[in-house]
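Two folds, back to back.
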Amino acid sequence: MSQTTNKQQQRRRSRRGMTLIEIMVVITILGLIAAAVGVAVIPQLEAARRDRASLDIKNIQSALKLYYTKKGKYPDTATGLNGLVEVQALEALPKDPWNNDYVYLNEGGKPVIISYGADGTAGGEGNDADISSADTGSAHK
């Protein structure tokens, strides 16, 4: 009988599952992995947002060229990017990756498109730095 009782005890132990310490070790390991991934991914996410803003600005510049072809001039600052939607050069006004509107200025016949970066205000450094069409190339040639 002792062999039968011993086998039953072994079966019960094997079905018990994980101990609290084993669960804590697994959770700690998963936390370390998540932290390592977060450290690697977050800077790439911000770089991707800045790249997207630059691409959006280039697309707006292309729409400005189409507007210029149709109207013979660039929209004034008061009309802004809404003029591009009116002539169907753009379907809708895009938002920058931080969900702010792009700023349009017509400086003496030279259009400038600006995203104010993550902080949404002029100036700044790093992720808060402005992204401008003056930096990515001119809309007119």
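---
second:
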Amino acid sequence: MLLLVLFAGYWCCVTLFPHVHRIDGCVYVHSHPYSGTSGNPAHSHTAQQFQLIAHLSLLVLAVGALVVFVRALVGRIFHFRLRRPAVRQGAPMRSFALRAPPVC
């Protein structure tokens, strides 16, 4: 239940609260709860906070790439494997011919 609440909170923050800061010709886009509009949020951040946002974004990207790389080295890749359909032994295979409905 806790994971569901955490995921819902994360999803809401990312989906409902993205906004833009324009500082010195640079555009910073991130999301967290705030007041104001998305083009003009009623708050600001320090240079250190923008640096932290950039480092955390890079960390998430690097960890994701590392996980994919390590799984590829081990021989596990991210895809769904095809499985044979489950068929009861001795049960006849039924096929249905598709046709248009009768017309009066």
